[in-house]
Specification:
- 4 copies of one chain form a homotetramer.
- By secondary structure, chain A is an all-alpha fold.
- Chain A has a single domain, classed as Up-down Bundle (I/LWEQ domain), CATH 1.20.1410.
- Chain A has 7 helices and no strands.
- At the A-D interface, helix 1 and helix 2 of A face helix 1, helix 3, helix 4 and helix 5 of D.
């Protein structure tokens, strides 16, 4: 199977995820500059999530670039990644309402961590389908970036609690 | 007519359906882990619907793969399938709020059943257009999977009532 | 300029329009079959609008099929059509809440009428760009279907008032 | 890297932005023509934003037309433009609720200004990648249109305050 529809569907889902988060940015009741103040944490959460989803889209773009064809397992590995990305608007909204509270931050970290794992699974599945000697395997390399980001996201979860206990 | 726009439009609609369901997952008012508890049935409904819509996208992908061209009847058969899929967010939301209540579960089963029938009609329409001896007809086979899933969905409706009566 | 992006963008906007209308179908508070009853007019409005938007997508598909290239004027004629189509969820929602009330029905008719006019302008613009002797001009023919539907939509507006006065 | 997915993703995001703004147009509680009156400023804001986003899509279409390939920097310059465009529904909603109030108008002007700057950065990045002698550089020209619109948007911010002080 060709990769065209996998790319088109992923582009559609990621485009919607990155855009519906802005629906959380509700227009304030008043018309003064100070009325925007309570929106600052919501805005920071939105910006952070926009950057994260943007990173995933960029990485997805690079990863699929060297891909020649896909199979059923790859379609599902990709859907799994999209599932975790689709939870980002939810955890962004929760974190935006309870800025720097430990559980919302931990939930945010957990979703990013799960997305990182899913991305890693997708890249392994693609390499297995194309062969370890393929151009794709070389391009992905040891996927150091993927492993590092998974570790970082994982670490962010307990760190959010430590931060909370310290303060 | 080529199939490119039919695929692109279907990808767009299915991508939106699979993503707007997450809007039902509203961030809880509190910031504790226990505040997520009332969201568990909503989350399970979302996961279930994500998997179902994902299955339809995968099947749609496989079905259209062997298609060479489409006509007006096929466009409408496809729109009919998209219509039933578009009702999944509604029944998911109802079932998420009334978890395991008989009528919401029956409505959910009915929509999945109607989507199964529509998918079957679309595949028959495609085979008729390409000929019973075409590669497409061979690929779809006797469409056993489609028939079985229609029966399963159909059975789920009365079963939900039996379940309710038993408990 | 090629027509690929015009098609992709139109597919995206129409896919979103046809899908966000389902957000009006809010899950009822109760879990009985009778709780669905107040949703019947909303559901009928949704079904009607789904069919109308589906017709426009089908027609758009047929119209663009014979097109070779587009220019700036055509891009804007297309955007104008998308603008009127984007108002369909709004008038659908109003009509769903006030079923058969004269003004909501008139507003619905007006938006469909304006979309019909915009579609006609787009088809004329495309014919002018390709020449009256082009394959496109022949395919569109005298655009009888377009003229008739414009008249029908136009007629629906006063008719909705007459209906209201009679009852 | 090819430009196909960059175009597809941008089309998706812009299609969603231009369409979700209509969700602000909530159906009025009553069914009379006069019930639409409070929606007039919301409607004007929607129309204005539809035209602005339409202009950006048109310009984006023209800009990418002459592009042969993209790199990582261009992907991020494009995401930055999409970020600012994604804030248009928010400022449209605020301005629609507080029509001609200085701060909402200033916020609207600021977002359009930032989008103008981002568009300029994207076009410079594209020219740098293709070379100053490329067909793209010639096509974009001195990007006079871009510079002018940036100045106009910038000017609109203080002007909104002067307008407010005058009245």
């Amino acid at each position: 199977m060709g990769k065209a529809r996998l790319e088109a569907f992923s582009d559609g889902v990621i485009a919607i995820i990155i855009t519906i988060m802005v629906l959380e940015l509700r227009a304030p009741a008043g018309s003064n500059l100070s009325d925007l103040k309570p929106l600052v944490p919501v805005f920071i959460s939105y910006l952070l999530s926009f950057v994260f989803v943007g990173i995933y889209w960029n990485n997805h773009h690079h990863l699929l670039h060297a891909v020649n064809e896909v199979n059923g397992t790859i379609l599902w590995a990709n859907l799994q990644l999209l599932f975790w990305l689709s939870l980002i608007p939810f955890v962004t909204s929760w974190m935006g309402q309870h800025f720097l509270s430990p559980w919302p931050v931990a939930a945010y970290g957990f979703v990013l961590f799960a997305a990182g794992i899913s991305y890693y699974i997708l890249s392994r599945e693609l390499i297995r389908h194309h062969g370890e000697d393929s151009m794709l395997a070389t391009a992905v390399g040891k996927d150091a970036k993927g492993i590092i980001s998974v570790v970082v996201y994982l670490a962010a979860i307990p760190l959010s609690f430590i931060y909370s206990w310290l303060s």
